[in-house]
């Protein structure tokens, strides 16, 4: 059908429109002026900056022709921007589109949480025009006011989940949006801010922080946003496109800038997940460094799984990123200011556990192992922490690196504090053929000192008990007390003689080892020598009864 002479031809986003000149001019001051100055049929070249798409323009054209149009959260901002561009105001024509769309926006969009979010989402393609008309600010202010009234709209605060074997379930429940939201108006479906692009989301969250929205709710929203837009794309399900990687990189950097600074507000597990995504996406160095510092400041709340960060790159030599973990450990020690040493002990044990996990990596270099071990040892120096975790890591490393020379094995064991090992660990170590002879002798000496201390305490305790009993029963049990005193004295003398015998034996072993004459014999006879020591102490047990283990949680490396 051919257009009449009274029609004007327009092409909007490639879609042709043939519209009545007089009807358009009656509603639009801009089109009226253009038609008056340009009588030709096609005005498309004069509307190159029109902020619209073909669907929105069709709605406006229907309104101009007198048809009813259905405004919705998805189209009202686009209609408002186009109506403003075409100058469809009350000055030009009564009951015009700007008034109609503004009334709908104010009375149907702004009171509703869901509709505000949907309207903002729809405006992302014309964000500058919507911002110029203050439509973005109006939606943002409405959203912030609702969150100030009900912070739960951002989602439940993150639970600091303790890692267990059921990690997948915990990860799913650690942060999620509130399923029971309260709204100013009744909505059938609950939306959340994660629908918005980062260019809209970031300023809204920043304004919420400035307006003192509780930070635990802000943190919940931030990680729900990451879980929606970043984490699924960095877990290996599908390789993201270059555009998606750039977008995810931008999101990581923006969210890191928004993270609250308060220690412990965000679990280490989530910070670690964020750091690993940042590494994969190759975000800027400053962002990654700040994430490392955040983890380091609350490392006493972490688990070993949080430190098992896979090494990246084609030239990687080790399975895990040990250099990054060393920096995280140094950050913790450098920021630790408490007089309570319990935090230092917790992190030292965590470092031991991490060392045990990476010790099985055949590519783990000796220097790297020693540096990690020394960080653990130095931080807990002077404390009463157990050295069993360090022994376990050393045992694994020696087992997986059988090619080490005698000197290198000595270096590995240099970080082991034998005097802090448990009796079970000492007994296991004395039978461990992977250990150097010197270490085995040190363990025997340590056992000797502990035994002397135990005997001394027993003698003191026995003496105190005897004096107390003598005081209580001095009138009617003099004969019995004397007999018990003789028995106690005989028992202590017997134990003392065993200790002296052990001291002589160990002293002889030390002299012989120093001369080197018995080294081969000792290396072959560790088990029998240990048996003989225990026999002389009167505590002989089967070697097979002891199976040393350090209790640890099951770890699933990411």
Q: Tell me the distance between the termini.
A: 65 Å
| Average of per-residue pLDDT values | 80
Specify the number of helices: 25
Give me the secondary-structure category: mainly alpha
Strand order of the largest sheet: 1-2
β-strand amount: under 5%
Helical residue percent band: 55-70%
Written as H for each helix and E for each strand, in order along the chain, the element string is EEHHHHHHHHHHHHHHHHHHHHHHHHH
Keywords: Coiled coil, Ubl conjugation pathway
Protein name: Phototropic-responsive NPH3 family protein
Pathway: Protein modification; protein ubiquitination
Pfam families: BTB, NPH3
Features:
558 residues, two-stranded antiparallel ribbon, 2 strands, 25 helices, mainly alpha, elongated
Break the fold down into its secondary structure elements and pairings:
Elements lengths: L6 E6 L2 E6 H7 L1 H9 L16 H11 L11 H10 L11 H13 L3 H10 L4 H6 L2 H15 L17 H7 L24 H13 L4 H15 L12 H17 L9 H14 L3 H13 L6 H4 L14 H14 L6 H17 L7 H14 L8 H13 L5 H8 L9 H8 L6 H36 L5 H38 L3 H6 L1 H12 L21
Antiparallel strand pairs: 1-2
Helix pairs in contact: 1-2, 3-4, 4-5, 6-8, 10-12, 11-12, 12-13, 13-14, 14-16, 16-18, 17-18, 17-19, 21-22, 22-23
């Amino acid at each position: 059908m051919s257009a009449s002479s009274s029609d004007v031809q327009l092409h909007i986003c490639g879609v042709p429109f043939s519209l009545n000149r007089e009807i358009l001019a009656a509603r639009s001051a801009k089109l009226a002026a253009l038609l008056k100055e340009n009588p030709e049929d096609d005005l498309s070249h004069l509307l190159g900056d029109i902020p619209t798409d073909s669907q929105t323009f069709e709605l406006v054209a229907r309104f101009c022709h007198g048809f009813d149009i259905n405004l919705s959260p998805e189209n009202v901002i686009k209609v408002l921007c186009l109506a403003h561009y075409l100058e469809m105001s009350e000055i030009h024509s009564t009951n015009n589109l700007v008034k109609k769309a503004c009334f709908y926006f104010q009375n149907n969009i702004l009171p509703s949480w869901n509709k505000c979010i949907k309207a903002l989402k729809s405006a992302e393609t014309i964000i500058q025009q919507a911002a110029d008309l203050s439509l973005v600010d109006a939606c943002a202010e409405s959203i912030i006011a609702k969150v100030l009234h009900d912070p739960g709209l951002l989602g439940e605060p993150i639970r600091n989940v303790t890692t267990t074997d059921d990690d997948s379930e915990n990860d799913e429940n650690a942060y999620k949006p509130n399923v029971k939201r309260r709204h100013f108006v009744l909505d059938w479906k609950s939306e959340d801010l994660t629908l918005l692009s980062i260019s809209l989301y970031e300023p809204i969250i920043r304004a919420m922080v400035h307006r003192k929205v509780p930070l635990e709710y802000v943190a919940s929203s931030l990680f729900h946003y990451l879980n929606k837009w970043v984490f699924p794309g960095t877990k290996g399900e599908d390789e993201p496109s270059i555009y998606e990687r750039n977008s995810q990189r931008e999101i990581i950097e923006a969210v890191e800038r928004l993270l609250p600074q308060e220690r412990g507000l965000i679990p280490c597990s989530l910070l670690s997940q964020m750091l690993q995504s940042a590494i994969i996406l190759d975000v800027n160095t400053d962002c990654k460094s700040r994430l490392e510092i955040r983890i380091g400041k609350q490392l006493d709340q972490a688990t070993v799984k949080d430190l098992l960060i896979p090494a990246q790159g084609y030239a990687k030599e080790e399975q895990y990123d040990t250099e990054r973990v060393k920096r995280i450990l140094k950050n913790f020690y450098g920021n630790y200011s408490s007089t309570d040493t319990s935090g230092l002990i917790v992190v030292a044990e965590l470092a031991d556990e991490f060392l045990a996990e990476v010790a099985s990596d055949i590519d783990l270099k000796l220097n790297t192992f020693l540096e990690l071990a020394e960080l653990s040892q130095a931080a807990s120096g002077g404390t009463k922490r157990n050295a069993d975790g360090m022994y376990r890591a050393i045992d694994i490393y020696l087992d997986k690196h059988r090619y080490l020379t005698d000197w290198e094995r000595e270096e590995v064991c240099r970080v082991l504090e034998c005097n802090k090992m448990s009796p079970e660990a000492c007994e296991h170590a004395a039978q461990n053929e992977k250990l150097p002879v010197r270490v085995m002798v040190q363990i025997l000496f340590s056992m000797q000192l502990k035994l002397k201390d135990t005997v001394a305490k027993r003698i003191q305790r026995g003496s105190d008990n005897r004096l107390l009993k003598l005081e209580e029963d001095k009138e009617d049990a003099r004969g019995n007390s004397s007999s018990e005193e003789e028995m106690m004295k005989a028992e202590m003398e017997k134990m003392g003689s065993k200790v002296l015998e052990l001291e002589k034996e160990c002293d002889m072993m030390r002299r012989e080892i120093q001369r080197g004459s018995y080294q081969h014999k000792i290396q072959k006879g560790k088990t029998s020598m240990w048996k003989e020591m225990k026999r002389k102490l009167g505590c002989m047990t089967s070697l097979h009864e002891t199976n040393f283990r350090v209790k640890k949680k099951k770890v699933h490396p990411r």
